[in-house]
Design a protein that fits this description.
- With 152 residues, the protein is an alpha+beta fold.
- Helices cover 41% and strands 24% of the residues.
- Strands 5-6-7-8-9 form a five-stranded antiparallel β-sheet, with no helix packed on it.
- Strand 7 and strand 8 form a beta hairpin.
- Helix 1 runs parallel beside helix 3.
């Protein structure tokens, strides 16, 4: 889902923010075409040939924000705090399971955030978001068991 970006100084620009995926970052689109991004900076061409610079920033809840001339704009709504807590619970596996726990917890947390931000029907998003953290914990248990058995 694309979220419109409104710049008061440039009302004629047709800009949108497309949230990132699991392996892709957020993108800024002009007239439904993605603009080239260098790190977190995007140069938006204007009709007179000049450009303006937008920056894409991301917070703890992976909600991209757009910065223009030092002013940070929330283009899309932030996730509610209970969903953020639920999504990040599997990251506690880092302290229990080290690298394997971190991997499983990170994938579960990213999967939960991705599901909540996706364009899937709302009931399906909620089911996936509720199942991803426990599945990450189960995956850690299975992998840890396999590694323990393999090392014996």
């Amino acid at each position: 889902m694309d979220y419109p970006i409104s710049l008061t100084k440039y009302p004629d620009l047709n800009l949108c923010l497309r949230p990132g995926g699991l392996f892709t970052g957020a993108q800024i689109l002009k007239d439904n075409a993605p603009l080239k991004k260098s790190r977190s900076k995007v140069l938006v061409p204007l009709a007179d040939g000049s450009t303006i610079e937008l920056k894409i920033k991301s917070g703890l809840d992976m909600t991209p924000k757009v910065e223009f001339q030092g002013i940070e704009m929330e283009v899309m709504p932030a996730l509610p705090v209970p969903w953020m807590i639920w999504a990040y619970i599997p990251l506690l596996l880092i302290f229990v399971g080290g690298a394997i726990g971190g991997l499983c917890g990170g994938v579960a947390a990213a999967g939960t955030m991705m599901a909540l931000r996706s364009e899937l029907p709302k009931p399906l998003r909620i089911v996936i978001a509720l199942l991803a953290p426990p599945l990450g914990i189960v995956a850690y248990g299975v992998l840890a068991f396999i590694f323990i058995k393999a090392s014996q």
